[in-house]
Specification:
With 120 residues, the chain is an alpha/beta fold. Helices cover 25% and strands 19% of the residues. It has a single domain, classed as Alpha/Beta hydrolase fold, catalytic domain (Rossmann fold). The protein contains two helices and three strands; from the N terminus they run E-E-H-E-H.
């Protein structure tokens, strides 16, 4: 796998505190470590989740999305996990050469739609 990033805050760290969460970066969601990988905390998650991935991201191995989806499905978590066709890592940042205006618009619309639905 890739070098392990610093442990990040996970939806499983504070179960029931949030009604929804969004992740637009796949780095560190699934790691090959035994000490509390974030995706294995799915049994503690209570919120609805949205993951917007780029189609190509050199820092996110191919195993990430299937492992993440398996953990979420096995624990009955409501989620959407959406790799965006034709995009590369950083596509939602206007200042980057890989910026994709339509794809960025779509992921932000999806994220805010989840917030609107869950936060009222």
């Amino acid at each position: 796998m890739h070098e392990r990033p610093e442990r990040r805050f996970s939806a499983g760290d504070l179960p029931g505190v949030f009604s929804s969460r969004v992740s637009l970066c796949g780095v560190g969601i699934v790691i090959n470590e035994e000490d509390s990988p974030p995706h294995l905390l799915a049994e503690r998650m209570k919120e609805e989740l949205y993951f917007g991935f780029s189609e190509v991201d050199d820092l996110v191995p191919e195993i990430v999305i299937p492992a993440l989806e398996a953990a979420l499905k096995n624990n009955g978590i409501r989620y959407e996990c959406k790799p965006i066709p034709g995009t590369r890592d950083g596509f939602s940042f206007e200042e980057r050469s890989v910026y994709n205006r339509e794809a960025a618009k779509d992921i932000w619309e999806n994220a805010f739609a989840l917030f609107d639905c869950r936060l009222g």
